[in-house]
Write a structure and sequence with these properties.
The protein is mainly α and 212 residues long. It has a domain at 66-130 and 145-212: Four Helix Bundle (Hemerythrin (Met), subunit A) (Up-down Bundle), CATH 1.20.120. It is built from 6 helices and no strands. Helix 3 (47-97) packs antiparallel against helix 4 (103-129), helix 4 runs antiparallel to helix 5 and helix 5 (147-162) packs antiparallel against helix 6. The chain starts with a helix and ends with a helix.
């Protein structure tokens, strides 16, 4: 199970409970409100501790936001791959048949490509709204495209190739393989970064509450 699936399963379990002793989220929220009220009263005159607590909780809030965005990216990329799979399979079957490409083949494949277009559009829309996550800086001289920009660029290349009067099936298979590998690469990145954010939250939680 990926980090995203674990986080999703945990959220569902915590929210609804399953009869195994889990505390419903509503009760946890009430307990948290009471604890926060008690902290405010206890620290009402202890300004130094208030400042220390804010210093700890601010990065905790950022980490939570990063977890949410990495999880959303993971889901968006997974949806792209689901939409891409039938097109990729059809293209590979055409290549294995050994026939030459025709405009009719291109139009047929382009119709099968439409669901992937919509999924890539949603990925690009998500990238435009991202606030808390980003790709690691690239080495000097290497292009630094965001996940949406790179995948959108490959999408345009595939569509341009399909609309040509004559095109190489082998060349299009190579381009589709590159698209597939790019999506999987970013999917692995999102999973890795989500795991890291979860680990950091757990460490911070242990440091903050472990001595209570």
């Amino acid at each position: 199970m990926s980090a995203t699936e674990k986080a999703s399963a945990s959220a569902t379990h915590d929210t609804h409970g399953d009869g195994s002793g889990a505390v419903p989220i509503e009760k946890l929220e009430l307990a948290a409100a009471r604890a926060a009220d008690g902290l405010r009263r206890a620290l009402s005159t202890d300004h130094a501790t208030q400042a220390q607590l804010r210093e700890v909780l601010q990065p905790y809030s950022v980490l939570q936001a990063q977890m949410g965005e990495w999880q959303e990216l993971h889901h968006a990329l997974h949806q792209v791959l689901i939409a891409f799979s039938p097109f990729h399979a059809s293209l590979r079957a055409l290549g294995q048949a050994g026939a030459g490409s025709t405009p009719t083949d291109g139009r047929t494949l382009l119709r099968g490509w439409r669901p992937c277009q919509a999924a890539v559009d949603r990925l690009a829309d998500f990238e435009s709204r991202v606030e808390h996550i980003r790709l690691a800086p690239q080495p000097p001289g290497r292009a630094s495209l965001g996940w949406g920009a790179r995948i959108a660029a490959l999408r345009r290349e595939i569509e341009d190739r399909l609309m040509e009067e004559a095109w190489s099936i082998a060349g299009l298979v190579d381009l589709a393989d590159e698209f597939h590998d790019a999506c999987h690469g970013y999917l692995s990145l999102a999973d890795r970064e989500l795991r890291l954010a979860i680990e950091q939250v757990q460490r911070l939680y242990t440091r903050l509450l472990g001595g209570l």
